[in-house]
Amino acid sequence: MSEATRDLLLCAAAFLDQGRTIDRLSRPLTAAALIVILIGPAITTQPPWMLIWSAVLVMLAGLAETYLAIRVGFDAALFRQVANASEAPDFAGTDAALTQLGLLPITKHGRPAGARVAGARRLFGVQILFLVAQVLSVLAGTWRGLDG
Fold this sequence. Notes:
Layout: H1 3-16, H2 19-43, H3 49-83, H4 91-100, H5 113-147
């Protein structure tokens, strides 16, 4: 592995580590939405259905964001491990292990580091989009709730 590839993987790992921040912002919204879904109908005779449906959207987006946070964190750890290996690592062994675990289809074996980093960046971008969806759903639900 060249020094440029090692640097790319280390920088990608550091960048993907920021997914933890996105996840820390998302989790309270997901928890609050779950509370609204569970308690909202029980505390009032006429539940605010628009608010409950917004909470459902927030919760679903939060669950998707959590899944992506796991994937992004896994990619960051994997990139860091490959980059920090003492021997000249290649992705052949990693690809075989990921395939054996059912995490990588055989068709994706042998991809260069740049393609792997690009795929992880796309996952990180989608993770951010799910957080944005949560925030917009909260705002929409609040606005509709105040509107009556």
